[in-house]
Design brief:
487 residues, alpha/beta, six-stranded mixed sheet, 8 strands, binds adenosine-5'-diphosphate
Length: 487
C-alpha cells in the first residue's frame, strides 16, 4: 500500500513522455552504474586519506574518530557491493522497484554516510561538508525536483540539528587535531553565519542543477517528438511509394502473362526468331518484376513493425522457394540442387513471411549471377544450436573489395554492372535486415566451393538460432552480423 503510494508519487514526478521511453530509463540505469563505480573510488580515496593523514601528516585522530572512519568506509563499501548486485536484477518496470528507486536509495545512503563523516571530523569545522553540494547536484540530475528538494530539507535540518546539539553539548564534538587553533563550533556568530551560508548554498545548487536537468529533459522530449513525427512521415512516404510501385507492377505483370500465352503457343505457332526475342522479352520483364518486388519488400519491411514468432519448417520453406524459382533457372539451363545434411531436422522460431523473402532473394541472386548451364547448390546443416542455410553458385562471383559493400542499400558490384543483368541493389540489404531481426548472421564467401576457371561463384550462408532469446530491453543487435571470407 505504502509502496504503491510512494510509487505513484515518484512516477507522477517523472515526465509523462519519459515513462515509456526506453532511453530515459537507460540513462538512469547508466547514471546509477556511474555513481556505483564512483563510490568504489570514494572508498579508495577515504582509505588513502585516513592512512595518509595518520601515517604521513601525523594527524592525531582520536580512537573514536579512527573507529568511526573505518566503520563508515567499510559500510560504504558493503552497501555499494549490495547496490551493484541489486542493479543487475532491477528491471525497467515503471510499477516495480525500478532504477529511479535505486537512485533514491543510493542518495539517502550516501547522505547518511556523509552526515556521519562530517560529524566525526569536526561537525561545523569539518572540511568534508562541501561534499553535500556535490551530492545534491548529482541527485538533481537523476531524481525528480520535488524529491531532491525534500531530501535537501531533511538533510540540511539534520545537519543543523547536529551542529546545534554539538553547540549545546548534548552531542560530543570531534574536532580534527591541529586543524583550528580556536573552537569554532561554540562560537554562536560563526555557527549562525556558517549555517545560513551552507543552507543557501545547498538550495541554490539544487535550484540551478534542477533547472538544467529540467531543460535537458524538455529538449529530449522535443527530440523524441520530432523523431516520432519523422517516423510517421517516413511511413507515409513508404506507403505512397508502395502504392505507385504496385501500380507499376500491374501492367508489367500483364505484359509478362501475354508473352507467356504466346510462348506457350496458345495463340498459334510462332517462328523461332520471334520465339527467341520473346523469351528475352519475358526474361527482362521478369527482372523488372523482381526489381519492383525488391522495392516493395523494402517498403513492407520498413512498415512491418510486427514480427510473427512461429515454428518454421525451413526445409519446406526452401522447397517452396525452389519451386517458384525453377522456371527462371530452367530458362538459363541452371540446375538447382538441394541437400538436407541435418542430423536432426528441428524447426526454428521466426517469421515465415520474412524468412521466405530472405531465402528467395539469395536463391534468385544465385541464378541471376550464375552462368548458363551452371549450378546452384543449397545445403541445410546444423551447427550447435543453429541451422545453417548455404546458397552457393558457380557464377560471376564477387570481387574481394566489393564484399563489405553489397549489403548496403542500392549497392551493385562493378562486375555485375558490366554484364547486363538488371537489379535494384536492394535485395541483400533486405536480407540482412531480416536476418538481424532473427538474431542471425549472414556470411559471404567468394570464390565459392563450386568455383571453376573464370567462374569464381559465391556462397552465402545464413546462420539462424533455433530458439531466439527474448531480447532484453538493453541488449543491442549483434554488432558484427556480416562476415566476409575470401576463399
Ligand atoms: P541486385 O541483385 O538487385 O543488384 P542485391 O542487393 O540482391 O541487388 O545484391 C547486391 C549486389 O551483390 C549485386 O548487385 C551483386 O553485385 C552482388 N551479388 C549478390 N548476390 C550475388 C551472387 N550470388 N553472385 C555474385 N554477385 C552477387
Amino acid at each position: 500500500m505504502q509502496v504503491n503510494l510512494l510509487n505513484k508519487l515518484m512516477m507522477s514526478l517523472v515526465p509523462e513522455w519519459a515513462r515509456e521511453q526506453k532511453e530515459f530509463w537507460e540513462a538512469v540505469r547508466r547514471r546509477n552504474l556511474w555513481t556505483i563505480k564512483l563510490r568504489y573510488g570514494v572508498v579508495m580515496a577515504l582509505s588513502v586519506v585516513l592512512l595518509f593523514s595518520t601515517l604521513i601528516l601525523k594527524i592525531n585522530f582520536t580512537t573514536t574518530q579512527l573507529i568511526a572512519g573505518c566503520a563508515i568506509t567499510a559500510s560504504i563499501l558493503f552497501y555499494n557491493i549490495l547496490l551493484h548486485r541489486l542493479r543487475k536484477y532491477i528491471k525497467l518496470d515503471v510499477n516495480k522497484f525500478n532504477p529511479i528507486y535505486l537512485s533514491l536509495l543510493q542518495m539517502i545512503l550516501d547522505l547518511v554516510s556523509l552526515l556521519l563523516l562530517v560529524h566525526y571530523t569536526g561537525g561545523i569545522e569539518s572540511p568534508l561538508y562541501i561534499l553535500f553540494v556535490f551530492h545534491m547536484i548529482v541527485g538533481s540530475l537523476i531524481l525528480p525536483g520535488v524529491v531532491v528538494y525534500t531530501l535537501a530539507i531533511i538533510f540540511v535540518a539534520l545537519f543543523i540539528l547536529i551542529i546545534i546539539m554539538e553547540y549545546i553539548g548534548t552531542l560530543p564534538h570531534h574536532p580534527i587535531n591541529g586543524l583550528f587553533d580556536v573552537d569554532l563550533y561554540s562560537n554562536i556568530n560563526f555557527v549562525l553565519a556558517y549555517l545560513s551560508t551552507f543552507t543557501f548554498m545547498i538550495f541554490v545548487s539544487v535550484y540551478l542543477a534542477n533547472g538544467i536537468a529540467r531543460q535537458l529533459y524538455r529538449r529530449e522530449k522535443d527530440l523524441v517528438e520530432s523523431i516520432k513525427k519523422i517516423n510517421v512521415a517516413e511511413k507515409e512516404k513508404q506507403k505512397y511509394i508502395m502504392g505507385i510501385v504496385h501500380e507499376l507492377k500491374t501492367p508489367i505483370v500483364a505484359v509478362a502473362s501475354y508473352i507467356d500465352l504466346i510462348l506457350q503457343k496458345f495463340l498459334g505457332p510462332i517462328d523461332e526468331t520471334v520465339e527467341e526475342k520473346l523469351v528475352r522479352a519475358k526474361n527482362r520483364t521478369d527482372e523488372g518484376i523482381q526489381m519492383i518486388n525488391d522495392v516493395l519488400n523494402v517498403s513492407k519491411l520498413n512498415l512491418y513493425d510486427k514480427f510473427d514468432e512461429e515454428e518454421v519448417d525451413i526445409k519446406e520453406l526452401i522447397s517452396g522457394v525452389i519451386n517458384r524459382r525453377k522456371a527462371y533457372a530452367d530458362s538459363h539451363l541452371i540446375k538447382i540442387k538441394f541437400n538436407d545434411e541435418r542430423n536432426k531436422p528441428e524447426k526454428i522460431k521466426g517469421d515465415k513471411f520474412l524468412l521466405d523473402i530472405a531465402i528467395s532473394n539469395l536463391v534468385g541472386n544465385a541464378i541471376k549471377y550464375g552462368v548458363d548451364g551452371g549450378i546452384v547448390d543449397i545445403t541445410l546443416k546444423n551447427e550447435g544450436n543453429s541451422v545453417l542455410i548455404e546458397v552457393c553458385d558457380d557464377g560471376v562471383g564477387i570481387p574481394e573489395e566489393e564484399k563489405p559493400k553489397i549489403f548496403r542499400d542500392f549497392y551493385r558490384a562493378v562486375n555485375v554492372k558490366k554484364i547486363s543483368t538488371e537489379g535494384s541493389g536492394l535485395g541483400l540489404s533486405v536480407v540482412k535486415k531480416i536476418i538481424d531481426r532473427h538474431d542471425g548472421l549472414i556470411r559471404v564467401k567468394s570464390p565459392s566451393r563450386l568455383a571453376k576457371i573464370g567462374q569464381p561463384g559465391s556462397c552465402f550462408t545464413i546462420k539462424l538460432p533455433f530458439h531466439r532469446e527474448k531480447r532484453d530491453e538493453s541488449s543491442e543487435y549483434p554488432a558484427n552480423d556480416v562476415e566476409f571470407e575470401s576463399s
